[in-house]
Amino acid sequence: MNAATPFDQFTRSAFGIEPGGTIGARLKAMATQAALPKGQSAPSDRTTDQVVFLASGATKLSAHASLEREQIVAFHFGGDITAIPSDSIYAYELTALVDSELLLFPAREFFDLAASDASISRSLLGRLTAALYRSRDKAVALGQKSASERLAGFLLGMSERVGKPHRGGCLLDLPMSRRDIGDSLGLTIETVSRQISHLREAGLVETQGRSHVRLLDLEALMAMAGHAQPAKNSTDNDSNLISINARLATSG
Amino acid sequence: MNAATPFDQFTRSAFGIEPGGTIGARLKAMATQAALPKGQSAPSDRTTDQVVFLASGATKLSAHASLEREQIVAFHFGGDITAIPSDSIYAYELTALVDSELLLFPAREFFDLAASDASISRSLLGRLTAALYRSRDKAVALGQKSASERLAGFLLGMSERVGKPHRGGCLLDLPMSRRDIGDSLGLTIETVSRQISHLREAGLVETQGRSHVRLLDLEALMAMAGHAQPAKNSTDNDSNLISINARLATSG
DNA sequence: CGCTTAATTGAGAGCCTTCAATCATCGTGG
DNA sequence: CCACGATGATTGAAGGCTCTCAATTAAGCG
User: Fold this and answer.
1) What is the mean pLDDT of residues A19-29?
2) Claim: this prediction has a pTM higher than 0.70
């Protein structure tokens, strides 16, 4: 086991502890390492919740409301931690959007052990809270927002997580399909496609191929997404630029 | 401080620790106790996330997507713990549905202290995970389900939390208005009202006054909600009755 | 270079919303 | 105890946004 294994990355970057310690050894004993090729789903356990550390790649966590109806509740990227329920009213499934490496833990044992270490507990409490907040924000979008608002919000959210600054705008290389975007936003692929076309016609974005999107006007997108805080006075728009970058990318 | 104070209830029932200990004293030092009359909102802190323990009563946690657009992300009842974000893109607000008693903690300090105690950590990890699962399930409903499915799911969810068994059915005394239900389900009050009328006409529920609802056919409601697991064989419906009661009521 | 899959674009239908009016509920005051 | 008023809930009709169905175009891969 060299210094760059997923497990070392897990203990060090996620929790700030050394993999060689007592806790590290016990964590390792209950971990299952998996290399998920693109499109493949994590081995699901119908009897035990699972905690997942995504070492590298990108995944989607989706719930099957019925055959033909899938809701993606979260996207994950390298370094993210998430939890997969086993006894929900829906069947949840973690699927790789690109080739990915991940560590799987049985949730109950993992939390039992984590609770005994202050550093790990503190990290998990923060991450779970962030994931909860993110999930709530998604619920707000799904419950209250129009298709154009949702798509603008989605692009801005992705820009925070995988965007690269590019001449005052932002360059995205989206790992998910239009269907995935639709399943995440509660829209059909046709509606997603139409909304992207509208954004393109409005000069707010440029697209190249299936996955490359360039956000040309972040401020206009924020206004369109309804992310702008109600201006306290007249033209007090500066605060938006700050708040939009405030939250770190974490599973949710 | 007698044995029935909200704080004693908090440490004992929520975490299984004695309020008199060192941790208990430090928790108490950072706690703010509040009695919220019906309709009133908790004092919001725009700079610090808050952890809330609801000792008694019922509350809603809502996000303001804009003026006139409110999404309720969670209902809470006595014994629940939740967290209110301060720096979200939406303004979150905790409002009492009935006269309520609650304890407020600054989230960062609270989690810092909680992490140092294995018992508290374990409890919080479980509660936060449950809240995350519940929020995800709500996202699924908001993203994929029709009005009738959402309302049936709402009634079943409430039956688990505040329902009283009644002659093979379930008796509900809902503390929230039709507007609250609509804001929770991403529907208008008119649509909620129409769907309730449909359920009544179908003989699945009876209503009495504004808040009393009697669920007459839980199985039919489950089928309508789309909560039924895909039957593995022919008429294997017994498992639904078990799974519907599997999750404990927790904030989220 | 051709094929398979994904994405785009268009037309029509459906579900929920909006707008409007009526009815019921419940707290209050006589 | 009942009448009254205010708020909440119900019901109806019309419109809008997204979905469904269908066809075309583009992208990516062998």
Assistant:
1) 94
2) yes
